[in-house]
Specification:
Pfam families: LysR_substrate. InterPro entries: LysR-type_TF_proteobact-type, LysR_subst-bd. The chain has about 160 residues and is α+β, with helices and mostly antiparallel strands. It contains five helices and six strands, in the order E-E-H-E-H-E-H-E-H-E-H. It folds into two domains: about 45 residues, D-Maltodextrin-Binding Protein, domain 2, CATH 3.40.190; about 100 residues, D-Maltodextrin-Binding Protein, domain 2.
Length: about 160
């Protein structure tokens, strides 16, 4: 789901989403910080020494529409001037951005959890370590749903896993 969830007009009891803070009017259980990694096509691994933050900053940077500040956070994290950002296309879905990276259109910055398998199989290459963004994953739901047996069971199980 791309847009914000409206619990008043949908039949959704709870959701897992990403936010930079608790959401007013909802019960929010912080699950973990969002960790972002730079991704490149697998061929980039052959020249792994060349992919410094300064080099990455010179490339076309692909963005996911629901996280427009990700590259700005990354530039700040690495002490790079924001004015040197070369933002390329923005994608509605992270999966589309990943396909664009594979096609050589640019470099992506995505949640590590979404590309762990591709990185392990060397289907994508990441030249650096993950960094914590300013966002976190949350289990969210309206207070009226707190006592639902199915939600209580799911919430209990989920929070035990973390």
């Amino acid at each position: 789901r791309i847009e914000a969830i409206n619990f008043d007009t949908s039949e959704i009891d709870a959701a897992i989403g990403v936010a930079s803070h608790d959401l007013p009017g909802l019960i929010c259980h912080r699950l973990h910080a969002e960790e972002l990694v730079v991704i490149l096509p697998p061929e980039a691994a052959a020249d792994s020494q060349a992919w410094s933050p300064a080099r990455i900053s010179e490339e076309v940077l692909l963005n996911v529409a629901n996280n427009p500040h990700a590259w700005g956070e990354w530039f700040s994290h690495h002490g790079l001037p924001h004015r040197s950002m070369r933002l390329g296309p923005s994608f509605e879905l992270t999966s589309h951005l990943i396909q664009a990276v594979r096609a050589g259109i640019g470099i992506g910055l995505v949640p590590r959890i979404l590309v762990e398998e591709e990185l392990a199989k060397a289907e994508l290459y990441s030249p650096g370590v993950a960094f914590a963004s300013q966002r976190s994953y949350y289990l969210i739901y309206p207070p009226r749903n707190e006592a639902l047996p199915s939600l209580r069971a799911f919430r209990g199980w989920l929070l035990e896993q973390i």
